[in-house]
Amino acid sequence: MDAIPLTRNFLVNNQLRWHGMTTGIIERPRFLCALGGALSTLNALPGAVPIIHASSGCGGNIYQAYNGGAGYLGSGYCGGLALPSSNVYEEEIVFGGENRLAEQIANTLKVVDGELYFVVTGCMTEMIGDDARAVASRFRDQGLPVLVADTGGFRGNSYQGYDIILQTLFRDFVARTSCQENKTLNLWGIVPGQDVFWKGNLQSLKTLLGNLGYQVNTFFGEGETLANLQNAARATLNIVVSDTYGIGAAKVFAEVHGVPYISVPLPIGPTATGQFLRTVGATLEIASKFVERLIRIEEDRYYSYYERLADIYNDIDLQRYAIVLGDANYAPALARFLADDLGWLPELAVVTDILDEHDRELVRQRFQDFQSGIQPRVVFDSNASRVAGYLNEYWLRNRGQRYYDALSPAFVLGSIYDRDLAETLGAAHLSVTFPVTNRIVLDRSYAGYSGGLRLTEDILSVLVAGR
Amino acid sequence: MDYIKQKTPPVREDRLRACNAFGGTCCDLVGASRSGCLYGLKRAFAQTYTCQLGLSLAILNTLRDAVIIIHGPIGCGGSNIANAGLAKNLQRLRDPRARGLIWLSTNLTEIDAIRGGEDKLKEAIWYAEREFRPRAIIIVNSCVPALIGDDIDGLVEGLQKEVSATIVPVHCPGFKAKIMASAYDAVYHGALRNLVKAPAYYDRVLPDDLEELKEKYSRSRTVNLLNVSSMSRQDELELTRLLQALDLKVNLLPCYAHPDSFEDATEAALSVSICPTHDDYFIGHLQAKYGIPFILRTIPLGIKHTSAWLLDIARFFGLEKEAQQLIAEETRQLQEALAPYRQVLQGKRAFIGGGEIRVGATAALLQELGMEVLGLRIYHYDHFADEIYDELNGKETMVVNVATSQPFEQANLLAKLKPDIYLGHVGLNGWAAKQGIPVCPVYGVNNLYMGYAGMFEIARRLVRILKNPSFNRNLAAHTRLPYFAKWYQENPFAYIDNNVLTGNK
Ligand code: SF4
């Protein structure tokens, strides 16, 4: 087939470009396209029914990726192979797919029971210049709950897809209001699916802030409803648990609804969670005595369990060198937990996202202030097999010396891809960052205090598994 | 058959007039197929499925000592993520040193869509060559490069001289094929153009007539056994066992094969398919180009089809009598072993979903076990299945729904038919489960299904699953499917666009 010239529409609409980001080839990527992130996000939104405007394979492909990669996330209410999709083929690619989309939306409204229908596009329909917005707005104008976002693969990866969906919800779904509820917060920045433990993590943080006396909307967590989301503009503060994910959406929220945001790192374990509470407390101007009391209670509880480890940790020497691999949220969070709470030596941290220099700098700083004084070496690389190369550069190889300071005993904390690395290093391994195909994940959380306990259990269990 | 000179193979809806939108009885289906008026491909409401790229990967990912390059935007081929861990273990069942699944994405962006993606593809090929030194580099071509017109074959031709791995382009852009099974042809097309060739022989330094005779004899007794990616290692071993009992040798391909096995394929005495709709393209070309005859009829599932499959092969080698003996003995032992299971399964009502050949033969197998088959759902239909479906008992009332996935049609059918057990395919099992029906998957990469041993395992599995259906029953009590109640009152095929003449071509 001859090349079809790209339409102007496609070029003009495309605002979110991969500016300054690495756009090279990637070996075994740890994320999908914007459509992927959009679908995993919508799948987590209660009552939402996505309608894909793309070729037949995009939806099924994305489902398989997240089902397997996110600890067997499953199809959920209307995900997986049940995802309504226009399934455009060559005819539509040549003649345009808008009629097919209109037909698909109309019939989805007849067959599928949802509270909110959300049209998301793939790269092909955008390239040929289909105006999904115009088609969807015909339904919206009739008062039907149909939203739309351009999420074609070119608009970035899963993380951008998450941001695009949130932006659209904040702009077109969250009701404008003048009434503020002092004790209500919104919290996001944890990407469903890409964060394999998203639901548990959201729940932990919600409970934690609840202890400070706040009602928290997480949109995707337990017990959330679309009504909560619709009323989200009543909150006094938006907390983005990320330096990079959902920041665009936070800006839109501030612009449209006037609610400010703070961006905080994902807290895992007592050291980071203490900081998290202090930052949030200070922003909300909560009396520090109150915050410190909460921290003390939580730490007491935490150490009542850690006390048990005094024996085994020291009897068999459970300290390890560690290599940490994960996205911009997880890599610093895990490294900090290992260094500051578990007393380990995270030597190398690999941030596996595609980030621009500005975001890289933000992430780099998160590795600077570990309480333990440990400073892992930080690299940014999305290629799965490259890590061994970095290690060689930095940890001297044994050149046949009799006395050699080996990177051992070691532990690889990363994704399933990194099991190979662990195998080569003779290190232990646990998958916690996407993709995680060798574990089933339900409500497990690694965030907060109890999350730190869970992660400790999981990591140390690997080390005693042979006993 | 000769499509090999073309860069890309034709899609199934054109080559075979395959259909993926139909609802009716089994009898109607076969009738329509035989009279050439079965070509529904459209729905006015549709759900996602997998594209031919996804299905191509299912096969290509299994190849040992190969690196896959997915030429497209970052999301295409993301399904590989789910197989990243498993693929290595499965490859290692065949070769303990296998490296596992390695793939690259060319990560096409909008700028590449404007300028063309060829430079990045070149970069990816070099990366694969440098980092992994594989025997083969497989380029899987997705929608975007097909749309912008990247000249992949031209690029490969230029680069092949400099790269030691054999580069294999596979053209499988999703939007080109409605029939997902076009993937089989796309994969075989790539293999036929680049991996299949007569191996080079060197003269012996010291001639050895006896050795040469032995080799010749061995080749005359070797069959290419064409496996499918939905088969387990246990299945392969069971079929190999049966062929070895006839003193035949087996060259297994394409799945989990080393790229070199494709060279060996040109020397076998016979090619044997276990799924006609999977292999006709490959087997037809092997015959046309290398004169290798083939058997392409059925899948060795259940007594009837396993025996027919075995007899076809034996007949070719003049071993019919020996095969009859083998079949009689195998069947006797199996029937004896099945007796207690039959008692439980007798009269149980089943519904089956999956690929046309596997589903048809599974239906026959369940009938052999004394079960009743209420209905079938199949991804696509083409003439290869006519014989199998025509021979099913009760075909006059048995419901058939041809649909690539489309779980909304399944939900409607299951609600009406209320089977005692559902046998289905990955991605669709969960939906049946939420309706409270016990589910037995129709395949599994770690389960035995084929041959005589497979039938015993299926019976055993069915009885076990039926013993405690609590999990799915509880699910049904606490979850719901996403369709309006009124959908279940409608005709399950209401959204199939029957107006094919105006709708399609
Ligand atoms: S863009 Fe095309 S090739 Fe890629 S997943 Fe979608 S349908 Fe398949």
TrEMBL record, chain A:
Residue intervals of the Nitrogenase/oxidoreductase component domain: 33-463
Entry keyword annotation includes Nucleotide-binding: no
EC category name: oxidoreductase
UniProtKB keywords: Oxidoreductase
EC number(s) given by UniProt: 1.18.6.1
Gene3D superfamilies recorded: Nitrogenase molybdenum iron protein domain
Residues spanning the signal sequence: none
Stored InterPro entries: Nase/OxRdtase_comp1, NifE-like
A GO term for molecular function: nitrogenase activity
Domain of life: Bacteria
Entries under SUPFAM superfamilies matching the protein: Helical backbone' metal receptor
Keyword Transcription annotated: no
One Pfam family recorded for the sequence: Oxidored_nitro
Protein name per UniProt: Nitrogenase molybdenum-iron protein beta chain
Lineage: Bacteria, Bacillati, Bacillota, Clostridia, Neomoorellales
UniProtKB/TrEMBL annotation, chain B:
Residue ranges of every copy of the Nitrogenase/oxidoreductase component domain listed in the record: 51-466
E.C. no: 1.18.6.1
Source species, domain of life: Bacteria
Keyword RNA-binding: no
Residue spans crossing the bilayer: none
A Pfam family annotated for this UniProt entry: Oxidored_nitro
GO molecular function, one term: nitrogenase activity
Family listed: Belongs to the NifD/NifK/NifE/NifN family.
Name assigned to this protein: Nitrogenase vanadium-iron protein alpha chain
Organism encoding this protein: Neomoorella thermoacetica (Clostridium thermoaceticum)
